[in-house]
Write a structure and sequence with these properties.
By secondary structure, this protein is of the alpha/beta class. It has 45 helices and 14 strands. Strands 9-10-11-8-12 form a 5-stranded parallel beta sheet, sandwiched between helices. It has a 4-stranded mixed beta sheet with strand order 3-2-1-7, with no helix packed on it. Strand 1 and strand 2 (12-15) form a beta hairpin. Helix 6 (176-188) runs antiparallel to helix 7 and helix 41 (902-913) runs parallel beside helix 43. The chain starts with a strand and ends in a 5-residue tail after the last helix.
Length: 989
């Protein structure tokens, strides 16, 4: 028997020298699955390929598929009643071992996509397996190339080394060591630009796919190459602001912290003066934090602080002074720049207890600045305050009122000068304000600069008054005139700045103009994004940008995601942007949106990218795409911030980076999405069905969001309409989500019969879809209904079945660990209520252990709180203290998910037991706040128990609250705790 199976590229199976073609794709996929697993049980094959069939149908389908394979290849498989095994076969990978020799050319097969011919078959389990199998094959090829690289190093063959490193990066583009090795190789060969291009591509890839940046080591190496490539002879001279510079330098030299405010018209030289001022201060002697607002692309709350907070986090890490968890969480909640490889789980419970306002944030930032200031003086620069968003202004005022240990430099336009000065005085920062107004150059200064930079013949030809008249003393305009006349003495400079820029654009070739237009449309874009907008290859884009940089039109700076391009002055950008025809502008905005959308992941919080994407959609007239973006964001915002137990896979959970979202902010997002939806009503851009899908999605999200806040009347209006539309058009997925929201609502308001009814409907739809994770969740909801009825025996069986369903999904690669652990937690609660505290503790021990091991934030606080209550029932005070302290610490640092008032009721008992009555009082206050969100009967009883417990230990009147708690627990199906309370507090029967 001779069997050969190709694993690279399209599917190819040869048996006894003949190519085999299966009529059924599932049979071919089945053979590949068996081949790569060697031996597989029949049960596993049924679960993977026929998960949506009952046992008899799945068994029959498997028999038919195996019969088909054996009929075509009679000796390929060994089949018994339990397992299926493949006999030895050849493949196309085993023959690639020679690739490890750098003398042997790399065959193209190495780059072929593994198992390319196989598809998901609409089977989630097979899809998961297929992805893992492809990864394993790719890893084997990578190991081969790494052996080739080692051999090339030993042979000192740079050509083979470069080829091998490039090959490795084609297979593993995220291998930073290989990126740096290849960069170094290019640099040593004098190909600095090629080295820089490689880094920029790598940086863009990390940003778009993983939402991270290269390491500091890589950034420093890149900076060295860019510095070498970008060096220009001579330095730009600083002109005619010596008096202002001296005044500001004198203020900064004072021992007392300075507050400097520089204002003037656009192009007057504010940024140049600030840069010159900073250049007089040795970089190693100060810690510099800076930000520059922009009016392009819109902004978002606290957006003007993002760069400062990013730089502050880097400084803190460098000093080994990482902030505490709560501070880190709160600041990361307003700025993605403050997040350092950390996931955060902000939620509605946190927002009801912790007010994230400018005053609190300003105090936190001032405390961190004080830490940095212990090592060296801190200078903070806030440029273009006239474009700061409202929240950023409020935060600056609050920050200044904390009298931070830093020198502050602020710049702005004349129209905002009076308001800014009033704000600075009102902040009462405890320091004098030094105000510097930059005015146009005087006539003699204009003449002096002109004579210094132009030949005397040009001066005589134009006359000195020409330069005074045409420049109006504005430095930007003057230097643009002088630059133009140096390059072309016959130029007409009487058309203003726009005319000069248009003339300079006329000297550019088409490729350079396209790149300049793209930078005007997409300010701060990377080379890769600009290349995608212009449709110009990256090498040509880089070459065009280098020429534009040399002409002083644009500059390159280091952004959070790598090197980006921007105009040397916003006025230049305005001139170029306004010169682009309207239709062409819309097209460039459309391309910019498409390029940014490739790098956008809704589960990764990046408000700057989100705001810019919305800006480009709006400018391109793409309102449908703008709405879809809002809906993508809202799905993750509402699911992760507001759901008690979000229904997401482990893969999505562990990749999420979603920040705090206040009710006010989410309300605005929902309202804006619905307003766009209303605008699109009757639009020719959408078919009736497409509009209905967007409408159903909007209403479903709005309804689910309101349920999380207990606004059930409004929630039902939205959700019922979404269900009506979903039924009319067959939107099963949206219908499922609506039923899930209703299940949570009935769970919150504790209506068992309605919960069971809606869960059975969810069960039916999930089976039809098929959506196995929702099927298992529906089973769990039904269990909760029976538990609420007090039928614990039935509830236990149902929860065990839900756990089994989730475990079966895990076997086939579909991991919904949180969903499974929630069912186990509820089992623990049943055992607690029925007095089996040992089994209850075991269930919750597994829940907390697995969540902690996986860093699965959602659920951790709830599980630890439940474990603490079980310990309380068992009289295990150490267990109570350990679990509830962990629950509170996780919750308050935004790493525990939602929990409800039960957390703080339990914590009040623990604090009172330890004699910390102030802590118990605060915990009771928090419990009160959370009960306003969701007032489940058990949680109300726990709150009354906590009040009684605290009162008894502090010498207060406890009998009323204790009797109320006992009565409530008895009515809630927890008579054991009711009896225990009566005994504990001596209440009698």
């Amino acid at each position: 028997m001779k069997l050969k199976i190709s694993l690279l590229g399209n599917s190819l199976i040869e048996y006894e020298g003949k190519r085999i073609a299966f009529k059924l794709h599932k049979a071919e996929a089945l053979l590949y699955y068996i081949a790569l697993n060697k031996e597989v049980t029949r049960d596993e094959l049924k679960a993977v390929f026929w998960y949506d069939k009952n046992e008899s149908q799945a068994s029959a389908n498997l028999r038919n598929a195996l019969y088909l394979i054996n009929n075509i290849m009679p000796e390929a498989l060994d089949v018994d009643r339990r397992t299926v095994t493949i006999r030895p076969f050849d493949d196309d990978i085993s023959g690639l071992g020679a690739v490890a020799d750098p003398k042997i050319p790399i065959p193209s097969a190495v780059y072929a996509a593994p198992l390319k011919g196989l598809s998901s078959l609409n089977s989630p389990a097979f899809s998961e397996w297929l992805e893992a199998a492809r990864g394993k094959i790719r890893e084997g090829l990578i190991e081969l190339i790494k052996k080739r690289i080692e051999a090339a190093y030993e042979a000192q063959d740079n050509e083979a080394l470069g080829e091998s490193l490039a090959a490795l990066l084609r297979l593993d583009p995220f291998d930073e060591d290989s990126v740096l090795e290849l960069m170094e190789l290019y640099s040593n060969m004098g190909q600095d630009r090629r080295s820089a291009e490689l880094f920029q591509s790598y940086s863009s890839l990390l940003s778009s796919k993983l939402a991270i940046t290269p390491s500091e080591r890589a950034k420093k190496f890149y900076a060295k190459i860019v510095g070498r490539r970008g060096k220009k002879e001579g330095q730009q001279r600083f002109w005619c602001r010596e008096r202002e510079l001296a005044l500001l330098s004198e203020k900064l030299a004072d021992a007392a912290p300075s507050l400097l405010f520089i204002h003037g018209e656009a192009g007057i030289g504010k940024s140049t003066l600030i840069n010159e001022l900073l250049s007089t201060m040795p970089a190693d002697d100060i810690s510099l934090l800076s930000t520059k607002a922009t009016a392009i692309g819109g902004n978002y709350a606290y957006s003007s602080w993002n760069n400062i907070l990013r730089e502050l986090r880097l400084l803190l890490d460098r000093e080994g002074a990482a902030p505490d968890k709560r501070t880190a969480s709160m600041l990361a909640g307003i700025s993605p720049g403050f997040i350092k490889d950390e996931g955060l789980s902000f939620n509605a419970d946190i927002s009801s207890m912790t007010e994230i306002n400018p005053v609190a944030l300003g105090a936190m930032i001032a405390d961190l600045i004080a830490v940095i200031a212990k090592s060296r003086p801190v200078v903070m620069v806030f440029e273009d305050i006239h474009w700061f968003d409202t929240r950023s202004i409020e935060l600056l005022c609050a920050f200044l009122s904390c009298a931070p240990r830093a020198d502050i430099i602020i710049s702005g336009r004349p129209e905002s000068a009076r308001m800014t000065m009033a704000m600075l005085r009102q902040a009462k920062s405890g320091r004098a304000i030094t105000e510097v107004e930059l005015t146009p150059f005087r006539d003699e200064e204009i003449i002096y600069i002109s004579r210094s930079l132009l030949p005397e013949s040009t001066i005589r030809e134009r006359g000195l008054s020409y330069f005074v008249r045409e420049s109006e003393g504005v430095p930007l305009m003057l230097f643009e005139i002088l630059r133009t006349l140096r390059e072309n003495p016959g130029s007409d400079c009487t058309k203003g700045l726009g005319g000069l820029i248009i003339e300079r654009m006329g000297e550019l070739d088409q490729r350079e103009r396209d790149v300049l237009n793209a930078v005007a449309v997409c300010v701060g874009g990377t080379s890769e994004i600009i290349s995608e907008i212009t449709l110009i290859p990256i090498e040509e884009t880089l070459a065009a940008a280098e020429l534009l940089i040399s002409k002083g039109l644009i500059r390159e700076r280091e952004g959070s995601g790598g090197a980006v391009w921007e105009f040397t002055h916003l006025k230049l950008r305005e001139c170029v942007y306004d010169s682009i025809p309207a239709a062409r502008r819309r097209e460039l905005h459309r391309r910019a949106a498409a390029a940014l959308n490739k790098r956008y992941l809704p589960q990764h919080w990046d408000p700057a990218l989100s705001a810019m994407l919305s800006h480009h959609y709006a400018k391109a007239g793409e309102r449908v795409l703008e709405l879809k973006q809002y809906l993508r964001e809202l799905i993750f915002d509402i699911t992760l911030n507001h759901d008690l137990f979000p229904m997401l896979s482990d893969r999505l959970f562990l990749s999420c980076s979603i920040p705090f979202s206040s009710r006010e902010e989410t309300d605005k997002k929902v309202e804006h999405a619905i307003s766009i939806l209303d605008e699109l009503r009757g639009s020719e851009a959408l078919t009736e069905r497409e509009y209905a899908q967007l409408e159903a999605s909007c209403f479903e999200l709005a309804g689910g969001y309101r349920i999380s806040w207990g606004e059930y009347t409004g929630a039902k209006l939205y959700t019922d309409e979404a269900i009506h539309i979903s039924k009319q058009y067959g939107f099963t997925e949206t219908h499922i989500h609506c039923l899930k929201h209703y299940a949570y609502m009935y769970l919150q308001i504790e209506e068992a019969d309605k919960l069971i009814k809606v869960s059975r409907e969810l069960l039916r739809l999930a089976k039809e879809a098929p959506a196995p994770h929702y099927f298992a969740t529906a089973v769990r909801f039904i269990g909760m209904g029976y538990m609420m009825r007090g039928n614990y025996a039935a509830a236990e069986k149902i929860f065990l079945h839900s756990v089994k369903l989730f475990e079966q999904m895990q076997l086939t690669g579909r991991r919904y660990t949180l969903g499974m652990l929630v069912a186990k937690c509820y089992l623990g609660e049943i055992y607690e209520r029925t007095g089996d505290l040992e089994r209850a503790a075991a269930q919750l021990s597994e829940c907390t252990r697995q969540c902690e091991a996986m860093n699965l934030y959602w659920g951790r606080s709830y599980f630890h709180t439940t474990a603490a209550n079980i310990a309380l029932d068992a009289g295990n005070m150490e267990g109570l203290f350990s679990h509830i302290d962990r629950a509170a610490a996780l919750f308050e640092s935004c790493r525990g998910g939602r929990c409800g008032s039960i957390l703080y009721s339990t914590k009040a008992i623990a604090d009172a037991e330890r004699g910390d009555f102030e802590g118990a009082r605060k915990a009771l206050e928090n419990s009160e706040l959370l009960l306003r969100l969701i007032a489940k009967r058990d949680w109300i009883a726990a709150h009354n128990l906590a009040k009684a417990w605290t009162a008894r230990l502090s010498g207060g009147d406890f009998s009323g609250d204790a009797m109320t708690a006992a009565k409530q627990y008895g009515e809630n199906g927890f008579p054991l705790r009711a009896d225990w309370i009566r005994k504990k507090f001596g209440l009698g029967g």
